[in-house]
Amino acid sequence: MRIHSESVVNHGQNEAYLAYRDHLPEFATYIDDIQKIVVESRQETEGAVKLHNVWFAKSEIPTFAKAFLKPEMLRWDDFAEWRDGEMRCHWEIKPRAFTDAVKCSGTNTFVDLGNGTTRVVLEGDLSINLKGIPGVPRMIAGRIGPKVEKFIVSMITPNLKKTNTALGTWMDRR
Questions:
Q1: How confident is the model over 160-171, as pLDDT tens digits?
Q2: Residues 6+ apart with CB under 8 A from 49
Q3: pLDDT single digits (tens) 55-94
Q4: CB 159 within 8 A of CB 93
Q5: How many domains does the chain have?
Q6: Count of alpha carbons within 13 Å of 173, Cβ hemisphere only?
Q7: Residue 35 belongs to what domain range?
Q8: CATH number, domain with residue 117
């Protein structure tokens, strides 16, 4: 399933890019359904920064998914490579549960719109294969897989916009 979000931040491209890259855990407090973001590792090389962040969600699990999703499973590892020359972040998200069944990756691109504004474009793909996951009957895995994908994308997409709004709010208050 395709993930797409675009937001305009009323700050310059370089400023928005660096704030997103370097201060995500700080402005995550402005995202209502994220409990926190923890930086597990940071590796800097010339022109790039590799980050491993862990996101902790605050979300209600839908009834159809309670048999196989537990609240502690609503956290994920975010592996990102920020490429300064491209003003782009290449990322891969790995959930803490069902890591072999979920594939999610994409990019964040920071586009200079001039006049001190930046368009943040997030594009990615999410696929879930529920076959073989304990607690999911094989005969319904194919039917509920798209529902689980839709639920996760519906959780992620508003957060993407909220993350960009939080970025702008955090930058405004600095």
A1: 788 888 998 999
A2: 21, 42, 43, 81, 82, 84
A3: 988 777 777 776 766 666 678 899 999 999 999 999 999 9
A4: no
A5: 1
A6: 9
A7: 2-173
A8: 3.30.530.20
